[in-house]
Amino acid sequence: MTDRAGEPQKVLTDEILADAKRQAERILARAKREATDITDKARAQADADRRQRLAAAHDEADRRRQLTLATVPVQVARMRAEKVEAALQSICDEARRRLLAREGFDYRQTVVALATEAVGCLQGDAFVLELAAADTEALGADLAEAVRRRAGRDGLRVSIAPEGADIPGGVVVRDAEGRQVWDNSLVGRLKRFWPALRRRIATHVAPEDAAAASPAPPSDEKES
Predict the structure, then answer these.
(1) pTM of the full structure
(2) Which residue in 84, 99, 106, 116 could disulfide with 150, CB within 3.0 to 4.6 Å?
């Protein structure tokens, strides 16, 4: 009787355990599915993030490449301008050297021409020629007369300053009162005419860069 009385309880217990097992299996299966879903979503998000980062890195690399390519013409133009400028400065330096070395021209005749030109640019009839200290004697005592004759003006009076001027060559002309001064020294004249000469030379050195060549004057340093 005892065994039979316990059978219903055992059946109930077995059913409860079986139901608990089924619920546990369902919970475990659901947990596995949720874990799989979470893992899949994480992987998908990671892949999306990776693609996004790769796309952003590609865009940044492309942007930098475009910026680099955009700077190339500017750099080329700057380097070309520097080369042209160096070439022009070299030409100016060589012209200055030859002028001061008095190469390739009759220096006395040049001074007479420079003085005559200056006299023609000033008002009045009396003028003083200021020469480099070494030129006063070397060019001859008749230099003033040579200028007067070349100018061809009646009543023109030309004299040589007793003291040498602080110039390496050429002539500075002033009127008797010192109110008008015309610098036709070799360096002064080169400096005055160099901007126009520079542009003309640039058209031969680099025609496409001639318009951009700025009229920078040569150095103001005086040579002894």
Answers:
(1) 0.59
(2) 116
